[in-house]
Amino acid sequence: MQAADWRGWNVHPDGYPNSVALQSFADEVSEKTEGRLNPRVYNNAVLGDQPDAIEQTRSGALDFGNFNMGPMGPIVSETNVLSLPFLFNNVDQMYQLMDGEIGERFADALAEKDLIALSWFGSGARSFYNTDHPIETPDDLQGLKLRVMNNDLYVQMVDALGGNATPMSYGEVFQSLKTGVIDGAENNYPSFDSSNHFEVAKYYSETEHLIIPECLCVAASSWDALSDEDQSIVREAAQHAAEEQRQLWAEGVEKSREEVEAAGVEINRIDDKAAFQSRMEPIYQAFIASHPDLESLIDDIRQAQ
Ligand code: GTR
Question: Strand, coil or helix: what is 196?
C-alpha cells in the first residue's frame, strides 16, 4: 500500500488538551504504521468552521477531526439527544455511558452518516458568561444576547431562559463580544480561557447546563481504505488519545478556572439548578414529540445514572 497523509481538523489552539491528545494520536499512528499512514493535525479551525469540517470529513475531503456533538446534531439527528440540557448528571457519568453500549448507539448513528467514531473526548460542563452581570436565576438571562453553537436546540434553550440566542461560529465570538454584537456566550473553562473571551466577559456563572461529549472521528472512506492491521493501530491510538485528553482535561479545567479568576473574572456557583432545569421541560417534550424514536435512548441515559 502507498503511504497516506491524513488531514485532521481541530478547532483549538496549540497546548489545549484536545490539541495535545490529537498530536499524540498522529504520532502514535505514524510510528506504529511505520509511516504507512501519517496524520497531520490542523489546529485553530484553519480548515474551516466546525459544521463545514464535519461535512468535509463525511465526504472524505478531510480524513479525521475532533468534533463536538453539538454542531453534529443537525447532521446526525440521534446526537441531538446529547444536546438536551442537564441530560447527564456529571462528566464521569457521561464518560461511563459513552464508553459503553449507549456510546455504541451513537457511534452506529454516526457511521450511517459516514463518520467512524473511534473514541470519546470530554468537554466538561458548559456555563454562561457575559459582559454585564452574574447569572443567579433564569431571570438574570432576560434580554441578554448570547452566542450559541450551531444547533436549534440551543436557540430553544436560551429562549426558554428569556435570553436571545445568536448561533455563530466559534471564531467570531471574541470580536462580537468586544464590539457588543453579543453580550455573552456559553462554554467550559478551558475554551473560555483559550479563546480569550474572559478578557471581555467578566461574569462566569456556573449553570453547567450542557455536558457534551466529543468524538475523534475518521472519514468512512479513509477508514475503509486501511488494512485490518492499520485499522486496529488507528483505533488503539484514538483510545489512547481519549485517555490522555480526559486526564489533561481534568487538570486543564482547574488551571483555566484559576487563570480567569486571577484575570478578574467574577465566578459564581449555582448550587440549586432546579429553576434552570424546570425551564427545560418543554424542550424535552417538544423533542420527544418530534423524535419519538429517540425517547427510549433518553430514558436509558437517565435511568443509567
Ligand atoms: C468548545 C468545543 C468546540 C466548539 C466550541 C464552540 O468547547 O470543544 O468543539 O464546539 O466549544 O463553542 O463552538
Answer: coil
4-123+213-256 with 126-210+257-304: one CATH topology? yes
| Segments making up each domain of the chain, as ranges | 4-123+213-256, 126-210+257-304
Burial 15-32 (b: 16+ CB within 10 A, else e): ebbbbbbbbbbbebbbeb
Q: Is the CB of 127 under 6 A from ligand 1?
A: no
Which CATH fold would you assign to the domain 4-123+213-256? D-Maltodextrin-Binding Protein; domain 2 (3.40.190)
Question: Which of 10, 50, 148 gets mutated to test ligand 1 (max ligand atoms within 8 A of its CB)?
Answer: 50
pTM above the 0.85 mark?
Answer: yes
- All three cell numbers of 149: 453553537
Q: What is the CATH number of domain 126-210+257-304?
A: 3.40.190.170
Strand bridging mode 203-210 / 266-269: parallel
> From first to last of its 305 residues, what are the pLDDT tens digits of the chain?
567 999 999 999 999 999 999 999 999 999 999 999 999 999 999 999 999 999 999 999 999 999 999 999 999 999 999 999 999 999 999 999 999 999 999 999 999 999 999 999 999 999 999 999 999 999 999 999 999 999 999 999 999 999 999 999 999 999 999 999 999 999 999 999 999 999 999 999 999 999 999 999 999 999 999 999 999 999 999 999 999 999 999 999 999 999 999 999 999 999 899 999 999 999 999 999 999 999 999 999 999 99
Ligand 1 centroid from CA 167, angstroms = 12
Question: To test ligand 1's pocket by mutation, which of 123, 150, 168, 246 has the most ligand atoms within 8 angstroms of CB?
Answer: 123
